[in-house]
Design a protein that fits this description.
Shape: globular
Structural class: alpha/beta
Order of helices and strands: HEEEHEHEHEHHHEHEH
Strand content: 5-15%
Distance between the termini: 13 Å
Radius of gyration: 19 Å
Helix content: 25-40%
Number of helices: 9
Length: about 350
């Protein structure tokens, strides 16, 4: 098995990890977020269980999958649990992706691949999650109470995401750069500590030229005049500078989202006067979200650096298994073979 295929098999072969809590951030079935907590000492833990020494940073994690419905948050659940083991509160966000069917909600037909994204719903959900989830995290009643050990620190929020989720993180950090008449516009930058984008679809012009993810960008944006208008609103490279610390982690042998896409975004940032930290790693598209790889540790360290959190080793604490959110109608069934 080749390198890229082996990397993909490693990620999708990991057993999904049940979150500590799943909460809705909107009314649509896909508007949900899974919370993974650090090893604080949850109810029912034995005496002497470890507690976080101070309020923990919050990481909003957006999964990839080319904005296509068969790929949901399940495949990043081991990575989310890994980050939580490093002392972070992780919120793994689900959002609306493309589907087939007359109503856009229908079950998938094997002979017809799911369309990439839903306009404007996909961006609606990304914006709503960033605006809503930090407040939800503060209201969870976490161990230690507000401001105590185990609480979420609302002043240390970092966005991260992989592939199409990397686009989500970069775009969400740039909403203050959107025209004031757009529904996602913010009058000032979000109060974020930073963005760590993993193999992101960061520059739409380059991604389209390279036919990244089988034309996913074109499917998300549409055709003709529609594409031109939407491109200016959805392309992170067109919304620079953001004034928010940004890191891109990019595998040197990535064939799904080639390094040229990250390079184009970094060049656009430099031209706009924004420093972007570009971390080049060994391997391809999936090691950044594979907790069995050294690259995942690099990602966790970078998130901790931006969040101002201590770098902690993973504790390996077993995750709660009391519920199975992936049998819930908020997801669209098992991932297809890849």
């Amino acid at each position: 098995m080749g390198g890229a295929a082996a990397e993909e098999t490693s990620v999708f072969g990991l057993a999904p990890v049940t979150p500590d809590r799943t909460i809705a951030y909107g009314e649509h079935p896909d508007q949900v977020v899974d919370f993974y907590f650090p090893p604080w000492g949850m109810p029912g833990d034995p005496p002497g269980a470890r507690w976080a020494p101070r309020p923990a940073p919050l990481v909003l994690l957006f999964h990839g999958g080319a904005w296509r419905a068969p790929y949901d948050r399940r495949h990043v659940s081991p990575f989310a649990a890994f980050l939580a083991g490093r002392g972070l509160v992780v919120a793994s966000v689900e959002y609306r992706r493309g589907a087939v069917g007359a109503d856009g909600e229908g079950s998938l037909e094997p002979s017809r691949p799911a369309r990439a994204g839903r306009w404007p719903e996909t961006l609606d959900d990304i914006a709503a999650a960033v605006d809503t989830v930090p407040g939800l995290a503060r209201e969870l009643g976490l161990p230690g109470g507000p401001g105590g050990p185990g609480a979420v620190d609302p002043d240390r929020v970092v966005l991260t995401g992989h592939s199409a989720g990397g686009h989500a993180a970069l775009w969400a950090a740039a909403r203050h750069r959107l025209p004031s008449g757009t529904p996602w516009h913010l009058p000032s930058p979000s109060p974020l500590r930073g963005v760590v984008a993993l193999a992101p679809i960061a520059d739409f012009a380059t991604a389209r030229a390279l036919d990244v993810c089988s034309g996913a960008v074109g499917e998300l944006l549409g055709d003709g005049a529609e594409l031109t208008a939407r491109l200016a609103l959805a392309d992170p490279a067109a919304l620079l500078p953001t004034a928010i610390p940004t890191t891109i982690v990019q595998g040197g042998t990535d064939i799904d989202v080639p390094p040229a896409v990250a390079d184009a975004f970094a060049a656009a940032a430099a031209q706009a006067g924004q420093d972007v930290r570009l971390v080049r790693t060994e391997g391809g598209h999936f090691p950044p979200i594979d907790p069995t790889t050294p690259v995942a540790h690099t990602v966790a360290d970078e998130i901790a650096r931006l969040a101002g959190a201590p770098r902690l080793r993973s504790t390996g604490r077993p995750r709660p298994r009391s519920i199975d959110p992936y049998s819930h109608p908020h997801t669209l069934g098992p991932l297809p073979p890849t």
